[in-house]
Design goal:
single chain, 467 residues, alpha+beta, Rossmann fold, Immunoglobulin-like, 4 domains, 6-stranded mixed sheet, 5-stranded antiparallel sheet
């Protein structure tokens, strides 16, 4: 066993160069026991690596209500220092604000000419809207690897992880997490090992390739060539400068397998040719999804996606009440992915169709049905009567059927003559109340609350006695 560990240590120590940022879930959704197990696992995972510039740099970013950068990538250049730091990491508790932490990660993982890994350790509970920042990170050349407990939202994690899933995404019981140590370490080594050509980002029409730079701008160049394995088109060739470490291949065909090869050329020595196979994603034409929100008696917001600025000329939204309402049309440019439809009939069902005119002349459309809310009775009457210094008596009347209560809003005067907004919920039996400490010329608003929503309220300006 001692020989095996020594051999592993020897083979890992000087194998790699790259940046590893640990994104550690430290929120309250993670039990203290789970948190300590993740820290212990991380310490063992990283123990064999040689640290510092020219080797592996490690940073730790904690996820909580606000992100906490425990230590940056340049802090630790020895295992002793790193292991001591990991033992001192405390559990933040609080909310799981992963999106805010990912914005910090984007600023940290900017080192050029080295592979970059984001290792996300999480329980996966309520990860938030992480798709966009994760896509941006991968576009920067960052490989996203994920360890999640069995409670995780696997569909979200599956979308944001860097392929292949079988070696980059692990869902494991926290008590058995040690069984994935060697597999995960090997996956990291494959990314940051000296000689490799990796695919770090894929779409239906593009691929980003990355490699560890072994040349300089003045010492040579790279020859790149690629083609589909069926060779349906002529082979593409490019010459890249010696200080390059990544390249984006564009105008690829969707759902097609390609082979790409990269050969460093130098007068000083011979280098191996690096190759990689990859398959582009199936084609997705906008609009692929249409949703509705913000429904009211007279409005509906319709949204669609994905945005494809380079492929779509314009969007058209057609809508009309079912079965025989007048059809109205809104035309929007390709930068828009939502619009608010107004002037609608209350309590009506609408057919809404979003169509995209693509640059190639093809038109793609998708329809949904949505209902406006029933029109709710408005407040019938509102009266304010001054009764004293900064005091008014508020009285109102409302339609009683389905009435649940009232929301009352006003401005209260604080110390030092500052004011703040105040509100109170009153039962349906209430028809008046007295307000004190009103701010000068405060607006007093009363809105009826019905079982199906909020009715239109009325507002008056209070003129209270000052003497």
């Amino acid at each position: 066993m001692a020989f095996l560990f020594f051999f592993l240590l020897f083979t890992v120590l000087n194998c790699c160069e790259g940046d590893i940022l640990l994104l550690l879930d430290s929120s309250g959704s993670l039990a203290n026991y789970e948190f300590s197990r993740l820290l212990h696992f991380t310490a063992e995972l990283l123990r064999p690596f040689s640290l510092g510039r020219g080797h592996v740099r490690v940073g730790l970013l904690q996820v909580g209500t606000t992100p906490n950068l425990k230590f940056d990538l340049d802090v630790h250049s020895s295992q002793e220092s790193l292991q001591t730091a990991l033992q001192s990491v405390s559990h933040l508790q609080g909310d799981t604000n992963t999106v805010a932490a990912l914005k910090v990660a984007q600023r940290l993982l900017t080192e050029k000419n080295v592979p970059k890994v984001l290792l996300w350790l999480t329980d996966g509970v309520e990860p938030g809207d992480v798709d966009k920042p994760m896509t941006e990170l991968k576009a920067q050349g960052v490989s996203v690897l994920i360890i999640s407990t069995v409670h995780g939202n696997y569909q979200v994690l599956q979308r944001v992880v860097t392929p292949p899933l079988e070696s980059h995404l692990y869902s494991v019981d926290i008590d058995n997490i040690d069984i994935i140590t060697e597999d995960l370490r090997e996956a990291i080594i494959k990314i940051i090992r000296a000689e490799r050509l990796s695919v770090v980002h894929l779409t239906s029409h593009s691929a980003v390739l990355q490699w560890r730079p072994i040349l300089r701008a003045d010492s040579g160049y790279y020859e790149l060539w690629y083609n589909s394995i069926l060779k349906t088109e002529p082979e593409s060739r490019r010459t890249l400068s010696g200080d390059s470490s990544w390249v984006e291949l564009t105008n690829l065909q969707p759902d097609t397998t390609y082979t790409a090869s990269l050969r460093p050329e130098s007068n000083h020595r011979l280098f191996n040719t690096l190759s990689v196979d990859f398959t582009t994603l199936p084609d997705v034409l906008s609009p692929a999804v249409v949703s509705v929100s913000d429904s009211g008696p007279h409005q509906i917001r319709v949204s669609w996606g994905p945005l494809q600025l380079a492929r779509v000329q314009r969007y058209t939204v057609e809508y009309g009440a079912i079965p025989s309402g007048h059809v109205q049309t809104v035309t929007l440019d390709s930068h828009k992915n939502s619009t608010l439809l107004t002037g609608l009939e209350p309590g009506a069902q609408y057919l809404i169709t979003v169509s995209a005119l693509h640059m190639n002349g093809k038109e793609i459309a998708m329809s949904v049905r949505a209902c406006t809310q029933e029109a709710l009775p408005a407040l019938a009457d509102l009266q304010l009567t001054p009764v004293g210094r900064q005091e008014v008596q508020v009285a109102w009347q409302a339609h009683q059927e389905g009435l649940k209560g009232y929301w009352l809003n006003w401005e209260r005067e604080n110390t030092h003559r500052s004011s703040s907004k105040s509100s109170v919920y009153l039962s349906a039996a209430s028809q008046s109340t007295r307000l004190t400490h009103l701010a000068p010329s405060s607006r007093v608003c009363v809105s009826p609350v019905y079982s199906s929503g909020l009715g239109d309220g009325l507002c008056c300006t209070a003129e209270s006695h000052t003497g």
